[in-house]
Amino acid sequence: MAKVIDMLKCYIEALMFFPKEQIYEAVWKADPEHCGAAVANVVYSLRRKIGDGYIETVVGSGYRFVV
């Protein structure tokens, strides 16, 4: 059960930030030099869970939560 909670925490933390490098640093606590695929996978999973139209891709920068 702890694994589910850890994943949920990861998704919530990802929503708090907008540039993909900042998302990576905050969630994975690592250098964001090669962060694109990891962040993209989390955003993809979030979109599948909450539905389309809530997370917008900002080309060349990151993601924006649309309210």
Mean pLDDT: 76
Helix and strand composition category: mainly alpha
Low-confidence sequence ranges? none
* Proportion of residues in helical segments: 55-70%
| Sequence of strands across the biggest β-sheet | 1-2
- Radius of gyration, Cα only, in angstroms? 11 Å
Please report the distance between the alpha carbons of the first and last residues.
30 Å
Shape: globular
Per DSSP E runs of 2 or more residues, the count of β-strands stands at 2
- Tally of alpha and pi helices: 3
- Could you tell me the strand content as a percent range? 5-15%
How would you describe this structure in keywords?
mainly alpha; 12% strand; two-stranded antiparallel ribbon; 67 residues; globular
